[in-house]
Design a protein that fits this description.
By secondary structure, the chain is α/β, with parallel strands linked by helices. Helices cover 37% and strands 17% of the residues. Bound molecules: S-adenosylmethionine. The site of S-adenosylmethionine (SAM) has 21 residues, from helix 9, strand 6 and helix 12. One of its GO terms (molecular function) is nucleic acid binding.
């Protein structure tokens, strides 16, 4: 568990530090296979502590890892707003916390002469060296190195092929939370999370719905479907969330006009901008999760058209965008093309004050 310090966030847009004091309340002991043949990786902190190392081995590794991190200087930051040594040093501690069965024991012995003390580990020492080299030399995202990301009050499994959920997206769950509090129909109804990735939004929303509320989540990526299913099972929500493989509304053909809510954080980066993103994102995160076409609007427009036919009259939608320009584009489009379909269309800012989300309702009279 990582306490007290903000976690790093991969920046698709200006970085926002996320909340830090997540707990990891759930075990992975009873997880059954996901509905794809792909087997998701177990996050480091959930792997069995079957390895061991002496405290002096760990101290040697830590010093080596710090030296490597320090050698980066301001290079990554200057290059593409990447991580600086301060952040990388924090990640070294987080990596150790995830790799050790009992991280507190290490702190107890720090600065003493107990170098022969044996610590139980979830990875071999050799793996720690490899993982940290990947982090620095290949700019592999820290979240892929440890196989998880802290998001709201959850710890979600992630791996290559699945977008690391971002802190700004958490606000969509807060918006839904506020909305369903006073509205039984929305709380007990059927929700959709389109392009679910790790399952973050689907799981966040399912956890705030009432006993009858359910979520269907879709994704075109088989890896995302496998990882989302794993996360759903880890939070024991398999009776509330159904994960479907397929493109946007295509797997939802039999449930048209039945949704009380529809949320999505679709790919919205303009194709040409991807190359200029932080290397952790551009080189390692799936293009399918990022690329929104020439102006980044391809998927947002598609979702907007589909929302009108998928939502029940009065149903709520929330779409995440790249920022103010895309928000305005989408709202203008809705007003021009499908004015009578929607009501209460609004632009909502994220925690950093950037216009980020377009929200609204399906009009009751269409
Ligand atoms: C920006 S990521 C968001 C992931 C997750 N909702 C989150 O917020 O962390 C976009 C997601 O849309 C998925 N996606 C891309 N094209 C899709 C399509 N045609 N149909 C369904 N999902 C798609 C990607 O695989 C990716 O998981």
């Amino acid at each position: 568990m990582r306490l007290g310090l903000a976690r790093p966030s991969l920046s698709i847009f200006p970085p926002i530090l996320s909340r830090a004091n997540s707990v990891r309340p759930i075990s992975c002991s009873s997880i059954s296979p996901p509905p794809t043949s792909l087997k998701p990786q177990t996050p480091l902190f959930l792997r069995p502590p079957i390895y061991s190392a002496t405290l002096s081995d760990l101290q040697k590794w830590q010093q080596w890892a710090k030296n490597l991190a320090s050698s980066v200087g301001s290079h990554f930051t200057d290059l593409d707003n990447g991580p600086d040594p301060t952040l990388l040093h924090r990640e070294i501690n987080w990596l150790l916390q995830d790799a050790l069965e009992n991280p507190k024991l290490r702190s107890t012995h720090l600065g003493t002469d107990d170098g022969d003390t044996v610590m139980k580990m979830r990875a071999e020492m050799e793996d720690l060296y490899t993982l940290w080299k990947q982090r620095i030399e290949e700019r592999r995202p820290f979240q892929y190195v440890v196989g998880c990301e802290h998001w709201r009050d959850m710890v979600l499994s992630v791996e290559e092929g699945v977008l690391v959920p971002r802190p700004e997206t958490e606000l969509i769950v807060d918006l839904v939370d506020d909305l369903v509090k006073g509205n039984g129909e929305l709380r007990e109804g059927l929700w959709a999370d389109l392009g679910t990735g790790s399952g973050a939004l689907a799981i966040g929303i399912a956890r705030i719905l009432g006993p009858w509320g359910r979520v269907i989540a879709t994704d075109l990526s088989p890896v995302a479907v496998a990882v989302a299913s794993y996360n759903v099972q880890r939070y024991n929500l398999q009776d509330k969330i159904e994960i479907k493989l397929g493109s946007w509304f295509e797997p939802l053909k039999n449930v048209e006009e039945q949704f009380v809510g529809l949320v999505s954080n679709p790919p919205y980066i303009p194709s040409d901008h991807i190359i200029g993103l932080q290397a952790e994102v551009a080189k390692h995160e799936p293009r399918l999760a990022l690329d929104g076409g020439a102006n980044g609007m391809d998927d947002l427009l598609h979702l907007c058209h589909g929302a009108a036919s998928m939502l029940k009259p009065g149903g709520f939608f929330a779409f995440e965008t790249n920022g103010e320009k895309q928000c305005k584009f989408l709202v203008d489009h809705m007003q021009k093309e499908s004015k009578s379909s929607f009501s209460g269309v609004d632009i909502v800012s994220d925690f950093a004050g950037n216009k980020r989300f377009v929200t609204g309702f399906r009009a009751k009279s269409t």
